[in-house]
Design a protein that fits this description.
It is built from 3 helices and no strands. The protein has 75 residues and is mostly helical. The protein is elongated.
Amino acid sequence: MDYIEFDVQLEKEGVIHIPEEYRRELASNGTVHVTVTKPRRARREGEDAIDYYLENPIIIPGFRAPSRDEMHDGR
């Protein structure tokens, strides 16, 4: 699968306009897969860091949190 990335402003009712340079190529395929990434909210001055990261966790692909036993077995 080929990927195209671009930033756009949402129009009324959440409409996304595809930039002109990609329209012909995408139209010839008929169906496209869309993934939307929402921007992270900037941390406000004076805001507690723990509260911020609880609301906006950092996602690391492939990361698996240790189990309770793994955390307490002294490894």
